[in-house]
Amino acid sequence: MKLRTKIQVFLSLIMIIVIIFINTAIYFLFYKVSLDAEVERVQSQANTLMEALAENENIDADPHQFLRAYIPSNGMIRVINDQNEVIESISKEVEYYNLPFTFVKKQSQQVIQGDSGTRYAIISVPLIWNDGQVMTLQVAEHLTSLKETMSTLFIVLVFASLIMIVPALIAGRWLGNFVIKPIRQLTHSMTDNPKDGEWKKIDIHNRSKDELYLMGNTYNQMIDRLNESFNRQEQFVSDASHELKTPITIIKSYAQLLKRWGNEKPEIFDEAVQAINSESNRMQHMTEQMLSLAKNQQRENLLFESVNLIALTQDIIRSLSVAYNRKITLFTELQNLEHSADKEKISQALYILIDNACKYSDSEINISIDQFEQEIQISVEDFGEGLTETEQEHIFDRFYRADKARNRESGGTGLGLSIALYIVRAHGGDIKVKSNEGEWSVFTIHLPY
Question: Is 171 a domain residue?
Answer without folding.
Answer: no
